Every structure is written in C-alpha cells, then in structure tokens.
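for the recovery benchmark. tokens below, seq after
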C-alpha cells in the first residue's frame, strides 16, 4: 500500500492506495483536486519518495504558489523541490496542437512518451496528472479519447508508479455525478463532492472504487487546513 499521508484518507482506503494503481480524482471547480494531488506528492517526498506532478493546465509556478499559500505549515516545499523529491513539470497539452493538420492522437502519444522519460529519469514512484480533462479538449473523437486514456494507464502501469489523475466534473453534487469512460478505465476512483447548502457549502469525499481492495463506503466531509487536508473519519463523524 502507498500511504497518501492525507489525514483520514488512508483510513478510508484501509491503508492507502494499492501500489502501482492508477486512481482518478473527480470533482467540481475549487473542490481541491489540485491541492489534494499536491499533498499526495508532498507527503511522499517527505518520506523520501520522489514524485512528479504533471501540471497539464496550470503554470507550475502557480501550483507551487497556491500550495505554499494554502498549506502554510508545509515549510519545506522549496527544499524538497531543490532535492528533486518534488518535480513540478509544466506541459500545456494544447500547445502541441498547432494546426488542424496535426493528429491529436499522435500529439498525445508524444506527451505520454515525454512523461514516461521524466518519470524514469527522476526515479519517481508517485505521479500526478492534473488534469486529464485537458486531454478531452484535444482528442475530441470519443474512440480516440478512450484509446488515449488506455495507453496512458498502460504506460503508467508498466512504469510501476502510483498515480493520481484529476478530472473535472461539471456536476459537483453526489446525486448528479455523471460517469465518463475514464472512470471505468482507471483502477480506483475518488470523488470530491460539494453540496450547496443555503449559507455554507459542504465538501465531502468518497472512495467510489478501488479494484481488488476493501475500502470505506462512507462519504466523509473534508476541510482544507494549513497542515493539509483533513478528511473526517467515520469515528470522528459520530463523535462530533
Ligand atoms: N487556506 C485555505 N483554507 C481553506 N480552503 C482553501 C484554502 N486555500 C484554498 N482553499 C480552497 O481550495 C480551493 C482550490 O483548490 P484547488 O485548486 O485544488 O481546486 P481544484 O479542484 O483543483 O479546482 P479547479 O478545477 O478550478 O482546478 C479554493 O477554491 C478554496 O475553496
Ligand atoms: Mg485544479
């Protein structure tokens, strides 16, 4: 098991994410997908495990800036970056597609190859791709898109890395979640929901699947704190 190090989440996963598994994290805008994925890399780095964060949509500088600002108690982010334990790689995946004559499948294949070489070079065991919704924009044909997702998963699996891939959901409420092809392709799935109460938004996290492993079936509220995510365990929920 690969411990995420995220408070409350490992308990929900009965230990962590199974090694070499590719897990998709689905959530609405501002749910905290990027921050959760960053914490996964950060906590691993602190334990000595190198991790690569592929920023597919946002500027790496912004990712680091936002992570430092939100997680103000993570004081050694720069140090871990300098040591090569945290690698934030920027890759605007729409950049490769310059004209209508470019084949998106081919371009995406090139990106996957580049990702692979950085993973191998850095010796990373933890990987993040944030977000894979960007792929949908360039590989528009549904069959080509599904194939792209398959090849991505197959490559990551072959490299033996444990991966979190974030994916945008336009329906952040639990009852409205719509499943997409990639949700079926990956080994595991975490969903971050937001329910709109009149005066306060409530955020909660659920493990929707983890192939071959037992996990909690509880939808647990979470908070984002200066020391990282705090996912309330079932025990805590009954205590509060
Ligand atoms: N210091 C903080 N304390 C509590 N919550 C915070 C703090 N800083 C940021 N947040 C929350 O985290 C959210 C941003 O998280 P993040 O960027 O990970 O979201 P996301 O799911 O990746 O969104 P997007 O789909 O827009 O990329 C903010 O909208 C805010 O609600
Ligand atoms: Mg994000």
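predicted aa per position
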């Amino acid at each position: 098991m690969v411990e995420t190090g995220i408070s409350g989440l490992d308990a929900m996963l009965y230990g962590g994410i199974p090694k070499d598994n590719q897990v998709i994290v689905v959530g609405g805008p501002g749910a905290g997908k990027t921050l959760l994925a960053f914490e996964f890399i950060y906590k691993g780095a602190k334990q000595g495990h190198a991790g690569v964060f592929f920023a597919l949509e946002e500027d790496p500088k912004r990712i680091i800036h936002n992570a430092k600002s939100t997680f103000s108690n993570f004081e050694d982010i720069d140090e871990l970056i300098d040591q090569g334990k945290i690698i934030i790689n920027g890759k605007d995946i729409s950049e490769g597609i310059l004209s209508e004559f470019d084949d998106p499948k081919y371009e995406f294949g090139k990106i996957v190859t580049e990702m692979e070489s950085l993973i191998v070079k850095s010796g990373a065991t933890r990987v993040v791709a944030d977000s894979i919704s960007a792929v949908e924009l360039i590989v528009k044909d549904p069959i080509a898109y599904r194939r792209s997702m398959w090849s991505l998963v197959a490559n990551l699996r072959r490299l033996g890395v444990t991966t979190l891939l974030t994916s945008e959901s336009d329906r952040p409420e639990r009852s409205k979640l719509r499943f997409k092809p990639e949700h079926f392709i990956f080994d595991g799935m975490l969903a971050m929901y937001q329910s709109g109460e009149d005066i306060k938004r409530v955020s909660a996290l659920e493990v929707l699947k983890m192939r071959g492993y037992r996990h909690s079936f509880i939808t647990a509220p979470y908070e984002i704190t200066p020391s990282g995510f705090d996912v309330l365990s079932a025990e805590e929920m009954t205590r509060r």
